[in-house]
Amino acid sequence: MGKAITKAKEIAAEAPWTAEKTKGGEVITKAKETATAAENEATAATVEQAPAVTLDELEGMDMSVFGQDETEAEDAPRPAWRITDDGCADWACRKIAEERAELARIRELAEAQIARIEEKLAEAERRCENGTRFLTSKLAEYFETVPHKTTKTKASYRLLSGTLTRKFGGATMEKDDSKLVEFLKASGNLEFIKTEEKPKWGEYKKRLEIMGGSVVDTETGEIVEGVKAIEKPDTFSVDV
Fold first, then answer.
1. Which residue would you say has higher pLDDT here, 218 or 55?
2. Pick from 149, 209, 226: which is nearest to 28 by CA?
3. Is the pLDDT of residue 106 over 90?
4. Percentage of the chain with pLDDT > 90?
5. Is the pTM of this model over 0.70?
6. How far is CA 20 from CA 12, 25, 27, 90, 221, in A?
7. CA distance 29 to 79
8. Residue 53: which pLDDT band, with cuts at 50, 70 and 90?
9. Partners of 200 in the β-ladder
10. Does residue 29 register a pLDDT over 70?
11. What are the CA-CA distances from residue 130 to residues 123, 135, 141, 165 (Å)?
């Protein structure tokens, strides 16, 4: 199926993106519909190549191979088959429900064990923190009784198993941007105020449209630089 879809995308890429203007000035692309149709036809054709499967065959099938990663599946290819009736489709829905129930069971078991491990870890952290705090306070008391090396920023005392260090505190500045800007304006220091330019995206986005993979300004017809179109694939889900 992957090769057929890839081929369809190649056809879509080669298709010319033609456009025409309507009376209202809107630009309408034609080739996008053709490309999408080609991809859908290629996907449908690939599915048709797989043989139909019966409910009895499904119930006797080893489903473990379908739970493998793509790299594992390369060594042991998955059998090709397709669902052709409601009975088989309903069986597939039940299997999905079973897989999700099994995942929920494993998750619940794992979370219970994780909770016990985290509780033991928290207990060890509390014991370490309390013991470290107590011994650190005793070392701080001892530090005051011995001569130590002093610099502008710290005082230290070296031991075989570690170094006792006291870092001197100092004054730091904490700013309030809004109040500081008001002060700079009032004091005439405008050169210290930074002006930040940003596009008014919410307003400008209203006149943009994705056409042929590019973002176009519908009022000027220009391709907009600095904005790119991100294609999101279709998604398929099963609710059980």
1. 218
2. 209
3. yes
4. 49
5. no
6. 19, 9, 6, 47, 12
7. 41
8. confident
9. none
10. no
11. 11, 9, 17, 20
Residue that has been written with the tokens 């999101």 in this structure: 232
Residue 19 amino acid letter: A
What's the pLDDT at 60? Answer: 81
pLDDT digits (tens, 9 = 90+) for 117-144: 999 999 999 999 999 999 999 999 999 9
Mean pLDDT of 78-93: 86
| Residue 185 neighbours by CB under 8 Å, 6+ apart | 193
> Stretch 191-218: mean pLDDT, rounded?
92
For residue 185, give both structure tokens: 């304006």
What would the two tokens of residue 82 be?
Answer: 């397709």
47 with 76: CB under 8 angstroms?
no
Q: How many CB atoms lie within 10 A of CB 216?
A: 21
- What is the DSSP annotation of the chain? -HHHHHHHHHHHHHS---EEE-TT--EEESHHHHHHHHHHHHHHHHHHHSPB--HHHHHTS-GGGGGS-HHHHHHSPPPP-B--SHHHHHHHHHHHHHHHHHHHHHHHHHHHHHHHHHHHHHHHHHHHHHHHHHHHHHHHHHHTTS--EE-SSEEEEE-SS-EEEEEPP-------HHHHHHHHHHTT-GGGSPP-----HHHHGGGEEEETTEEEETTT-PBPTT----PPPP------
- Read off the tokens for 232: 């999101």
Which residue, chain included where needed, has tokens 């054709």? Answer: 45
